[in-house]
Design a protein that fits this description.
Elements (H helix, E strand, L loop, with lengths): L37 E7 L5 H15 L10 E7 L5 E2 L5 E2 L3 E2 L16 E5 L21 H12 L4 E4 L2 H7 L7 E3 L2 H10 L4 E3 L4 E3 L3 E4 L4 H13 L2 H10 L24 H11 L8 H8 L3 H12 L3 H19 L4 H7 L5 H12 L3 H5 L2 H7 L3 H10 L3
Parallel strand pairs: 1-2, 1-6, 2-5, 6-7, 7-11, 8-9
Antiparallel strand pairs: 3-4, 10-11
Helix pairs in contact: 1-5, 1-6, 4-15, 5-6, 7-8, 8-9, 10-12, 11-12
Length: about 400
């Protein structure tokens, strides 16, 4: 047998040897046993989300073998939990068996160096949670898991946070000075809980060297394909996605689908800018900052907005915040003053003046309009916002 190839990201560390289940497995041409080119350990948190986990591991499975035979030849994966017990997903499906990560009562940790990546799959954060109630079913309650992530980080093992798995990476203290990607749905919660963290929700995943983070959902397949292409080659990544009936590999900077009424925007820059504005409804951005974050010049962004909406980005942003204010007016019991502050207006008079100009009536009078209340309820974005903020 030839000597094991060097680890792709850590030249001084050899790739892990095949597990006992793989010993003697021939490659697809009937030759010598294969040493997996990609080895992944999945750290499953309680109530993890099933879709991103399944999308990620299935991409590995289909790249690992020919056809749909599922042998762990080119890729290898194992499922880990804090105590080795089975782990239930948020939908009730259970993954078993799992291997313990160890570390308790003097027990050694499961050696993370056998993996090219440790992928943390997070999930539901809690029922009716509040941002200031960290004890309620939060990822950080898994103290042993956080210790394990710190241990892996100290050994130089790349860490991947999928869905709310990034919360655990932050809690473990291994994301300092790093950018991270989070779903638009969790962006508000994350920025409130971790204001020092640079979180983005306008793309599918972020590769920050030995820290990779993914918004979750179907984007986990894109991140998995990205890693398969890095370690096995583009053909194997394409093979997986084709069998999964996915139409090609989306890059990390591909915009997240956003639940807005403006779902017919064709221009990529405009879509990204709108997504950024949605994430900062209570903290207005300057046009220059918006243009920088969207990847355009100020003049170019203004031109694109006028082509798409007939107004510039500044007016568009103000109108979006006013629509949010209308929703809050109908579906929460916050005062007009509180709503104006939540929507980023300087004071009540400033908010009321622009509100009347946009909707033809004062906030107080429109709040009593039952017809308007029904029409406002169809906006899916603000319904999601209300659910995240605990509005009634």
């Amino acid at each position: 047998m030839p000597s094991s190839p060097l680890h792709p990201l850590h030249p001084s560390r050899p790739s892990p040897a095949p597990s006992s289940a793989q010993q003697g497995q021939a490659d697809v041409s009937g030759g010598e046993p294969l040493t997996p080119a990609l080895s992944v350990g999945f750290v499953l948190l309680s109530r993890f989300t099933l879709l991103p986990f399944a999308a990620f591991v299935d991409c590995l499975r289909l790249a690992s073998d020919e056809g749909d035979r599922s042998r762990q030849l080119r890729c290898r994966w194992r499922f880990l939990s804090e105590d080795g017990a089975e782990v239930a997903s948020s939908c009730g499906a259970v993954i078993s068996p799992c291997e313990p990560i160890g570390g308790r009562h003097g027990q050694p940790f499961c050696d993370p160096r056998q993996f090219d990546y440790l992928v943390v799959i997070g999930g539901v954060l809690g029922d009716g949670e509040e941002p200031d109630r960290p004890e309620r079913n939060r990822p950080e309650r898994d103290g042993g898991t956080l210790d394990y992530l710190r241990h892996a980080s100290a050994l130089g093992v790349p860490l991947v946070g999928v869905c709310t798995g990034v919360y655990s990476l932050i809690q473990a203290g291994v994301m300092e000075g790093r950018r991270c990607c989070v779903s638009w749905y969790h962006h508000l919660d994350m920025t409130r809980r971790f204001p020092a963290v640079s979180a983005v929700a306008d793309r599918l995943y972020v590769d920050d060297g030995d820290r990779l983070t993914c918004a979750g959902g179907a984007a986990a397949a894109d991140l998995a394909a990205y890693l398969v292409e890095r370690h096995l080659g583009r053909a194997w990544a394409r093979k997986s996605l084709h069998i999964m009936l996915l139409d090609g590999h989306r890059s990390g900077d591909h915009s997240q689908p956003q639940p807005v009424v403006f779902d017919r925007i064709e221009d990529r820059i405009v879509r990204r800018a709108v997504a950024i504005l949605e994430q900062h409804l209570g903290e207005p951005l300057s046009v220059d900052e918006l243009a920088t974050r969207a990847g355009a010049s100020r003049r170019g962004l203004e031109r694109k907005f006028r082509e798409a909406f007939g107004v510039g980005p500044q007016k568009f942003a103000r109108d979006l915040r006013l629509r949010y204010g209308l929703w809050l007016l109908y579906f929460t019991d916050h005062s007009v003053t509180e709503i104006g502050e939540r929507c980023g207006f300087a004071d009540t008079a400033h908010f009321s003046r622009h509100f009347r100009s946009a909707f033809g009536q004062s906030p107080s009078r429109l709040r009593r309009d039952p017809v308007g209340r029904e029409e406002a309820g169809v906006d899916p974005f603000f319904l999601h916002v209300g659910a995240r903020l605990g509005h009634r």
